[in-house]
Amino acid sequence: MESQQWRRPRLNNYALACALLASTNSILLGYDIGVMSGAALFIKQDLKISSVQQEILVGSLNLFSLIGSLAAGKTSDCIGRRYTIVLAAATFFVGALLMGLAPSYPYLIAGRAVAGVGVGYSLMIAPLYTAEVSPAVTRGFLTSLPEVFINVGILLGYILNFALSGLSPSFNWRLMLGLAAVPAVAIACGVMAMPESPRWLVMKGRIPEAKAVLRRTSESDGEAESRLEEITKAASTASNGNSDSSGGGGGWHGQGVWRELLCPSPPLRRVLVAALGINFFMQASGNDAVVYYTPAVFESAGIRSRRGLVGVTVIMGVVKTSFVLISALFLDHYGRRPLLLLGSMGQAISLGGLGLGSKYLERRAHKPMWAIALCVVTVCADVSFFSIGLGPITWVYSSEIFPMRLRAQGTSLAVSVNRLVSGVVSMTFLSVSKKISFGGTFFVLGGIMVVATIFFYFLLPETRGKSLEEIEELFQDKDPKTIASTMTEMT
């Protein structure tokens, strides 16, 4: 019976096309993460940079993406979701060119700064747009597509690392980084074929246009009318509840939102705790750092060949991408909470195993093959569980739990926390590992994932199958016992 109910919802082809076009922007971040893990080896060799400079190079993109993610909320409220995606691709294009043509380390950092701003815009806007366009029954799958494309980008980066690693170290890393400019152009052109978000159109008072989009993303005119009525009602409530906003009119540009976010009501405070918490733990899990520094981890484990190091990362990329696809396909069947809890518990166990393997290898001059294999398997397990849980679900959850009028800038704030933590972890990973060893670092990350599992269990209610407006009501409930009861039922 459960299986039959799951098959009933049909994937709307137009909504799928919109989600795919919006999500392609995420390839740019994934490509940078994947390609930089290998390029950093050759940059260090060519430009003779220190380990600290390498950390700054890797982590700076994440810190500068904080600027883009903070600005993206206001930008998307003013110019729309679609043009914000175009702006993200254009900014990354400029950054990729600067990195590819960089004659020295300072120029390379400048390119990372510009590309980082584009990444910040992209990470915030792609899942937000997709959540606002998608029908409730398939929103989990469609909104997880940005994470799928991030992993596709990571895998492409790994493959190009492997393909170009045989070239001269003074040339190959420039080609690796500069090639990201090519998909950026294609993405910016493709996004122009997308419609605008119906919820943004309603907030701007453009009801007929919103209705036309909803008709194409719904299975029937009746469903489209019902969705429009729900969205219009939510927009009207938001407008009446805030005197500074002209919520349903064309003069609305997101004014008054930051004041509400910084001085939240109790229901909004619950939303903020959930959104900021899941974004914090996504990056505190160390996944970005593990992906960036996998070659360094395996080098310390005993794999010495540059081509061998890059080859192992390709295997990891294939595994990571496969599992995020599995998670996306089952997200609307099993729900957010079960997969999130499975992923975080799996990461905690995997990181513990990786810590044990690394600690054993640190104490041995001779590196036994079984211990190296253990490290490879547990790294693959860690990124796989991340791809099942935190990877896709963070973007889905962040983009669907904020009230409509606060959604863009609220999501922007949550993604900013994500980028800040990612930057700090990426820029300190090697330094911390030198102090307490790779094994010690992995034990710490495993402990963080234990705390994350407890946080998710008690503070994140299930949102599967609910419209964005119904989710708003879920967080309005002021009775903690009712919220706990709802979470237990959904689990």
Beta content: under 5%
Distance between the termini: 18 Å
The number of helices is 24
Oligomer: single chain
- What is the approximate shape? globular
Helix content: over 70%
Q: Low-confidence segments, ≥5 residues, pLDDT <50?
A: 1-6, 243-248, 480-484
Largest sheet: none
Order of helices and strands: HHHHHHHHHHHHHHHHHHHHHHHH
SSE-based structural type = mainly alpha
The total strand number stands at 0
The whole-number mean of residue pLDDT values reads 84
Q: What does the radius of gyration come to?
A: 22 Å
Organism: Perilla frutescens var. hirtella
Subcellular location: Membrane
InterPro entries: MFS_dom, MFS_sugar_transport-like, MFS_trans_sf, STP/PLT_plant, Sugar/inositol_transpt, Sugar_transporter_CS
Protein name: Polyol/monosaccharide transporter 5
List the helices and strands and how they pair.
Elements: H1 2-7, H2 13-23, H3 26-47, H4 51-79, H5 81-100, H6 105-133, H7 139-143, H8 145-164, H9 169-178, H10 181-191, H11 198-203, H12 207-217, H13 221-240, H14 257-262, H15 266-284, H16 287-292, H17 294-301, H18 306-334, H19 336-362, H20 369-388, H21 390-400, H22 407-459, H23 468-476, H24 480-490
Helix pairs in contact: 2-6, 2-8, 3-4, 3-6, 3-8, 3-9, 3-18, 4-5, 4-6, 4-22, 5-6, 5-9, 5-10, 6-21, 6-22, 8-9, 8-18, 12-13, 15-21, 15-22, 17-18, 18-19, 18-20, 19-20, 19-22, 20-21
